[in-house]
Amino acid sequence: MTDTAAFPTASRARRTGLVVPVPEAEDLVASWRLEHDPSAANGAPAHVTLLFPFRPLDKVEPAIDELRTFFGSVPRQPFRLVHIGVFPGVVWLAPDPVSVFIDLTGQLVGSFPDCPPYGGAFRQVVPHLTVIDHSGRDRSAADAREAFVARADAALPIDAELTEVILLAEDDDGRWSTHTTFPLA
Fold first, then answer.
1. Is 36 helix (H, G, I), strand (E, B) or coil?
2. What mean pLDDT value characterizes the chain?
């Protein structure tokens, strides 16, 4: 859910996404995200995205039972945020094992082929927790990146647990809130 600028404005209203919340990372990333990640300022918690965009909010209800059944069969499991990664204009934390997130995304795409990750904008999906997102802004992320790396190096790895997936929904004002929580097995 990082690059909202990559999607046309007309399709922004009422989007949804399936994400793994990572409350264990909030102590490290909350202030950075609030200042440098528009999704945080608009209500999205620290998270690793599984599938964004998912279906528009007015078309999501028929999928809720299928998602509940799917996620109810996924075992809870530990993971760690282990290193800092960089995309152009974006600084992020990498989960390990990454295969857990790649597999979940692949299974979701298999069940919902009408919802390619990031609208099909990228050839490869790289699971990550966005900390700084200047991709849709005129200013550089370099200074913020250097300051965050200096702070985060000492804080990593962060132990976390995959216990639930949430369906985030965007309102008409671009604010994100939890629509549905899917506990894992």
1. helix
2. 91
Asked if residue 23 has a cis previous peptide bond (ω within 30° of 0), the answer is no
Alpha carbons 140 and 134: distance in angstroms, whole number: 7
Whether the per-residue pLDDT at 5 is higher than 50: the answer is: no
Distances (CA, A) of 180 to 61, 68, 163: 10, 9, 14
The reply to whether omega before 53 is within 30° of 0 (cis) is yes
**For the stretch 20-38, what's the b/e string if a residue is b when 16 or more beta carbons lie within 10 angstroms of its beta carbon?**
bbbeebeebbeebbeebbb
Examine the pLDDT at 7 and tell me if it is beyond 60. Answer: no
For position 137, what pLDDT does the model report? 66
User: Could you list the residue range(s) of the whole structural domain that residue 157 is in?
Assistant: 4-183
SS3 102: helix
CATH of the domain at 111: 3.90.1140.10
Tally of structural domains, the chain: 1
